[in-house]
Amino acid sequence: MLSASGDDHLDGNKRDGTGRSGLYVDVENLKADGRAMVQGLVENWPDKAPRPTRLSLYVRADQVDLWRLWATSLFTDPEVKVNGTQHFSLSSSKNSADIAIATNAMADLVLQRVTHVVVFSDDSDFISLYAAIRDDPGIPFSGDKVPFLWIVTDREDTLSATVKQFFPSNKLHIVEAGRNQKENVMSLESSQHNPAQSPPAPSKDLWIEMAEAVLRDIPVGSFKSTDCLPVIRDSWPNHPLARAGGAEFGTQFKNNIWPILEVRGVKIDNPERKPIRYEMTEQAKHTGVWV
Predict the structure, then answer these.
(1) Disulfide check for 61: which of 84, 153, 159, 230 has CB 3.0–4.6 Å away?
(2) Does the reported pTM lie above 0.90?
(3) What is the Cα Rg of the chain in Å?
């Protein structure tokens, strides 16, 4: 156990003056917006806590490989850990991720893997985790600088009114929900074409680069997601997506690359049938702009 006396007062930071946050995300709680919100949070990190060096995602046990593929391809820093939450019964499944997050966060903090705990969830069950960190004499901090931050969304009916009323406001950070991948791409391209009206656009992420490679190499006409696998392998041979199987590749393609292609004008020609077949259009190939 750490000492909270003398030179061991860290104000939540490492002794060399730098802090290391652990970000613990209840993915199921964030629902369909999870990927966009996690990416947006890491890219626009609040100044209430040091930047994360560990990212722990808590997902359904049958989706661990998919989330690991997504997270490790997107983030090189922080270190990524994907935790499968096994639901043993309908009545107790709601708290499975909460218990795992609280347990792992305390362990990481006490063992000095991190200096700050940052939880991203709209559940109201993390007051006890905050209290445990605040009241544990072995956690190094001084004054009111409890090394804890609770990230919540602006969705209605998330945290209870009681939590909002009594939980320290400086330990809460609110992020915007509902911004999907297609909207992110449109915002990016809009800012690039209207520099006088918008701040400098962020650099393109890897999914957009992959989508551009597909636009370049796939001919006009009908195609399957797996027809794009050689394109990814040629340009990114060491990327996890290049080694993905057909079904896994198809899922990642539809979730991450297809929304970008759709903005450009690529269509799905059989939306009601499986397997999905996409349609590369002349518009997508030759307009040169995002529509």
Answers:
(1) 84
(2) no
(3) 22
Question: How far apart, in whole angstroms, are the C-alpha atoms of residue 42 and residue 52?
Answer: 8
Instruction: Of 14, 81, 27, give the one whose Cα is nearest residue 54.
Output: 81
Does residue 45 or residue 125 have the better pLDDT? 45
| Cβ 262 vs Cβ 279: under 8 Å | no
Answer yes or no: is pLDDT of 90 > 60: no
Contacts of 215 (CB under 8 A, 6+ apart): 261, 264, 266, 280, 284, 285
Tell me phi and psi for residue 216, to 5 degrees: -75, -40
Q: According to the model, what pLDDT value does residue 287 have?
A: 60
Paired tokens of 282: 């002349």
Q: What is the pLDDT of residues 233-277, one digit of tens each?
A: 888 888 888 888 777 888 888 888 888 888 888 988 776 677 789
Chain centroid to CA 284:
29
| Structure tokens, 104 | 């792992």
CA distance from start to end of the chain: 57
What are 288's two structure tokens?
């040169």
Task: Give me the amino acid identity at 158.
Answer: T
Q: Which two tokens stand for residue 61?
A: 């046990």
Do β-strands 221-223 and 267-268 pair in parallel, antiparallel, or remain unpaired? unpaired
Burial state string for 120-155 with b = 16 or more CB within 10 A and e = fewer than 16: bbbbebbeebbebbeebeebbbeeeebbbbbbbbee
- As a whole number, the mean pLDDT across the chain is 77
Q: What whole-number distance in Å separates Cα of residue 71 and Cα of residue 256?
A: 12
Main-chain phi, psi angles of 137, to 5 degrees: -65, -15
Residues 137 and 100: their CA atoms lie apart, in Å, by: 22
Spatial contact of 59 and 68, defined as CB atoms under 8 Å apart: no
